[in-house]
Design goal:
single chain
């Protein structure tokens, strides 16, 4: 699952082997006007999927399923859980390498300590009980397992707003807030990095009035045909036009964290403690 500002927010019936419709709640591949958002999410899958090599992976909130299919290139097994029945049917039809389960992320339908890695990209900002979800991730991970998380950076995604700009978001986070949530759930945060525009996208920011993102949002909300030059620029974006780096985390577009379930038994709600 991931976010988009392109789409009519309508629900339409589609064939399960065709692209899912844009709703504003997720991004999907193969739609020219959506290409910026798709590539912005694709780069995180591309750069982090090696951490899934040879592992049993759960993607919690898989949306269209393209990311789970990328992970299946390297993982021993990929299981996905999503609450949206149309997405579940779509993934089952389009990505046969992926085991797809319909379920609630607040009560993951997996046994304790059953996976090596949980992937959760562009999902946590949609959840009402983020702390409960992270406790469930902790529960299903084996000791030493990793939780890979990405989410829009509140500081840059909804600047100066008390409520998220995207109506599908319940709570957006900055780096400190995401770290606090992960630590409170029992994780050690090994990496906190962010997605930034690379050189080409910085040039497109300048070309389109200071913000390439705002130029796209303006046209999408206007409901009018896109200018030819903007369409060409959007369609030409690749994952290589983004970069992940730990510096300037508060200026990042999206936060990307790697959190580790430590090699220990936990006390309290996580079970009895043992050496």
């Amino acid at each position: 699952m991931s976010d988009s500002f392109v789409g009519d927010h309508a629900t339409r019936a589609v064939s399960t082997d065709a692209p899912l419709p844009l709703t504003g709640e997720r991004t999907v591949p193969g739609i020219p006007e959506e290409n910026y958002w798709f590539r912005r999410h694709e780069v995180v899958y591309r750069d982090l999927r090696e951490r899934c090599t040879g592992r049993r992976v759960l993607e919690a909130g898989s949306g269209e399923g393209y990311g789970a299919d990328m992970i299946a290139d390297v993982a021993a097994h990929v299981t996905c859980v999503d609450y949206d029945t149309s997405a579940v049917e779509h993934v089952r039809a389009r990505y046969p390498r992926v085991e797809m389960i319909h379920g609630n992320l607040a009560e993951l339908p997996l046994p304790d300590a059953s996976v090596d890695t949980v992937v959760n990209f562009q999902v946590i900002e949609h959840l009402w009980d983020q702390a409960q979800f992270l406790r469930e991730c902790f529960r299903v991970l084996r000791p030493g397992g990793e939780l890979l998380v990405s989410t829009p950076n509140r500081i840059t995604f909804s600047p100066g707003r008390d409520t998220p700009l995207n109506p599908f978001h319940t709570r957006e986070l900055n780096a400190d807030e995401l770290t606090e949530l992960l630590v409170d759930a029992g994780f050690d945060v090994a990496v906190m990095t962010g997605v930034h525009h690379g050189e080409r996208l910085r040039a497109l920011d300048a070309k389109h009035g200071g913000s390439f993102i705002d130029a796209q949002i303006e046209r999408a909300l206007a409901g009018q045909p896109w200018p030819a030059d903007l369409s060409r620029d959007v369609e030409g974006i690749t994952a290589d036009d983004f970069t992940l780096r730990e510096q300037d985390i508060d200026a990042s577009l999206d936060l990307v964290a790697v959190a580790v379930r430590a090699h220990r038994f936990e006390t309290g709600e996580f079970g009895a403690q043992a050496p």
